[in-house]
Amino acid sequence: MSIAPKARPNVEKMSGYTPGEQPRPGERVVKLNTNENPFPPSPRVVEAIRTIDPERLRRYPSPSAEDFRRTAARVHGVSPDMIVAGNGSDEILAMAVRTYLGPGDVFAYPDPTYSLYPVLAEVGEVKVATVPWAAGWDLPVDGLLATGARAIFFANPNAPTGTLVRTRRVRELATLFSGLLLVDEAYVDFADENSLNLVREFSNVMVCRTLSKGYALAGLRFGYAIAAPAVVSEMNKVKDSYNCDAIATSAAAAALEDQAYARQTWEHVRAERVRLSEALHRRGWQVIPSQANFVLATCPDGNAAAIYRALKGKGILVRFFDKPGLQDKLRITIGTAEENDQLLAALSA
Ligand SMILES: Cc1ncc(COP(=O)(O)O)c(C=O)c1O
């Protein structure tokens, strides 16, 4: 066999993003490790997929996912030219890095956070400046500004902590910063507040949303950003020509149309979040108050790796991060009441 070509030096050095484990289809596990919605998607989504006109598959889809953008614009009260759609919000994050950060530019974010951010930086040869979260998981505004970054990202609610930065703090940063401020709102449907209004006020703020969590469509791969038309127009230049397929675009639009159904699932998750947090607390765990569809909890004996393995042995998957500051903790997705009961029973055993 001939020798494989050498990748770019920065790519050769990378190890890439480590996704949570995905069981094979049909494998029976209690899956509380990748923050999916525990309920099925809206019946209107299933109907949209079932009834798609085959002619739409023969042709290329709308390059800008036009139907979806129109629906999203109506739901959020913005104009369609303020929306750009992507193959999951991961693609939106990658597009934002490609659009706003070049080799050597500084990219700042509070730490710990979503582990994809450093991977995107490595691919783009962008310099990372991480800033520890301020006390009480508050946004470290001064620290972020002091990095001299060209772009600041932060997840709100944050992963893996589930903590929420209040909008008035986000506004403070938006006022003082002139680069791109990307608020990654993957989990915002489960939270008390969001930063959407800031997009209307500040042309440097981008809010990033996903259908993976609140709309129970992680397998569909659909996300979008809301930002000033000038920002969307720059992002459109770097995106793949037909990045959202016809089926996903129709299904995502149907999901957003059915706000009543989605809201029901959010309310269930929020109620179970309280119940699970209290039950863990009674068992000696320290639980960070969460505004997301998961909790980050510190084990009573600090040995999170052992508990993670023991749960896995019983067919219950949770997420363990073998990283400084997280080794005594597990991130547990809020499941259905039955799934959460199974987890609690296994922990008691
Ligand atoms: C903070 C955050 N942002 C974005 C994503 C990506 O979501 P998706 O690509 O499924 O839309 C995730 C996924 O877990 C996440 O935790």
Q: Separation of termini?
A: 53 Å
Q: Helicity level, as a percent range?
A: 25-40%
Radius of gyration from the CA trace? 20 Å
Enter the CATH topology name of the largest domain: Aspartate Aminotransferase, domain 2
Low-confidence stretches: none
Instruction: Give a list of the ligands.
Output: pyridoxal-5'-phosphate
How many strands in all? 12
Provide the descriptors you would attach to this structure in a database record.
349 residues, alpha/beta, Aspartate Aminotransferase, domain 1, Aspartate Aminotransferase, domain 2, seven-stranded mixed β-sheet, three-stranded antiparallel β-sheet, 14 helices, 12 strands, 40% helix, 15% strand, globular, binds pyridoxal-5'-phosphate
Walkthrough of the structure:
It is a single chain. 40% of the residues lie in helices and 15% in strands. Strand 5 (151-155), helix 8 and strand 6 form a beta-alpha-beta unit. It contains 14 helices and 12 strands. The strands form 3 sheets. Strands 2-8-7-6-5-3-4 form a 7-stranded mixed β-sheet, with helices on both faces. Helix 2 (43-50) runs antiparallel to helix 11 (246-257). The relative contact order is 0.17. The radius of gyration is 20 Å and the shape is globular. The longest helix is centred in the last third of the chain and has 24 residues, at 259-282. It has 2 domains: 20-40 and 260-348, Aspartate Aminotransferase, domain 1 (Alpha-Beta Complex), CATH 3.90.1150.10; 43-257, 3-Layer(aba) Sandwich (Aspartate Aminotransferase, domain 2), CATH 3.40.640. It is α/β, with parallel strands linked by helices and 349 residues long. It binds pyridoxal-5'-phosphate. Pyridoxal-5'-phosphate is lined by residues 35, 88-90, 114, 155, 159, 184, 186, 210, 212, 218, 223. The site of pyridoxal-5'-phosphate has 13 residues, from helix 5.
